[in-house]
Structure formats: C-alpha cells, structure tokens
Amino acid sequence: MIRVQAEDFDVGAELASLSEGNHGIGGIGVFVGLVRDMAGDDKIGALTLEHYPGMTERKLEEIEAEARRRWPLEACLIVHRYGRLEPGDRIVFVATASAHRDAALESCRFLIDWLKTEAPFWKLEETPDGGKWVDARDSDNKAKERWVK
Amino acid sequence: MKLLYFAWLRTRIGMAEEIVDPPSEVTTVGTLVDWLKTRGPGFAEALKDPSVVRVAVNHDYVKADHPVRPGDEIALFPPVTGG
What we know:
The complex is a heterodimer.
Chain A: E1 2-5, H1 11-19, E2 27-34, E3 38-39, E4 42-43, E5 46-51, H2 55-70, E6 73-81, E7 83-85, E8 90-98, H3 101-118, E9 121-127, E10 130-133, H4 138-145
Parallel strand pairs in A: 1-6
Antiparallel strand pairs in A: 2-8, 3-4, 5-7, 5-9, 6-8, 9-10
Chain B: E1 2-5, H1 7-13, E2 17-19, H2 29-37, H3 41-46, E3 54-57, E4 60-62, E5 73-77
Parallel strand pairs in B: 1-5
Antiparallel strand pairs in B: 1-2, 3-4, 3-5
C-alpha cells in the first residue's frame, strides 16, 4: 500500500497495523527518513517538498509492485509526505513484512533506493541565503543501480 | 496538450501549468522542448541543459524521441530529490 500525505505519521501505529492478523510475518524491515538541519555547510531552517500528484502515486505503486515481484512480501507500506517540514520531522516511511528477515530487509532497502530516483518529489531548502532547490545526488543513482537487473 | 512544470523549472518558466497548441512540426518530446525554448527567456534558461530536464508523458518517464499528441499531459521537471 502507498500513501502520499501532508500529515505526519505514527511509526508504531503503522507497524502495528501492517502485521495485524497475519501470523505468517516473521519480520519487518523499516526505513524512516527525517529532515536534517544541515545540507553540506548550509544550515537548513526547513524544507518544502513539492510533488506531482497523480504521477507520484503511480510511481510508488509501480515501485511496490516491483518489490513484490522480487521478494515474497506479506505486507508493504510506503508513506511519503509533502509540504513544509522542519528538522527532525519525518519525511518518508517504508516498511516491508515477510516470513524471513532477508526478504524484509533487502526489499526495504530496494524500495527507498528506487523511490529516491523514481518518485517525482523535489526538495526546496530554506537556507540563510534563501530558498535552494536540492540537486539530485550521484550517490542516489549509484544506490539504485545496485538493483537494476 | 497540457504542460506541467515542477520545482526550479516552474520558477524559471514562471508558471505551473498551461494548455498549448504547438505548431505541426512538434511531434516528439525533443521537438516540443526545442519549440518551448523559443517562447521566451524564461523557457530558454530553464531548458538550456537537457541533462537536467526529465520529461513524463501521461505519468510515464520518456525519452526525447517519444511522440507527443493533442490531449497528452506532459510534465517537465528536474531530476527528483525525494525520500
């Protein structure tokens, strides 16, 4: 399942509902992305996440479907926020549940790597010099390339 | 066709979306971008480096040779930075 929302999410509640009633789940892999207060040497006051409604949901659904093709997942949830977020705020939540830990942990890593280069979100950072659009990072493309086959 | 602009392409071009009726030689993403660049300094500046412009037609990533048709929703945006 995927959700794109402005509101915060409760990690504990999301995890509890993900595995509720499914005793075939032996483990859950989780990634929670947070807003940092620094970008390079710049102090960040906040950031605003812009996205492309419609395409965002479509790409996240495709990414989830690809993970389910590659690993035997019992459950999967991606939550991505948009709007203005401050340091310490949660941005993204990825959780993958499977019978065994390898599938859960590997697919979680796959989803966040893939999402970073495919899902149409853009970060605008508030710096002392004004708003600054974040550049895509080569390391993110390299992280995704690990999964290309 | 409907055009959408995001992130710094939106701010440089100066609008988020518009409906356009391009000339008949615009048949692909590449010829669309070439035509857009002639529409003013904001467009020329925003689209000058094709290596940092991604294009999606009807919510799918496409390359420069992809056809464009009346009725398409075409989005232009920089490489994504979510997550």
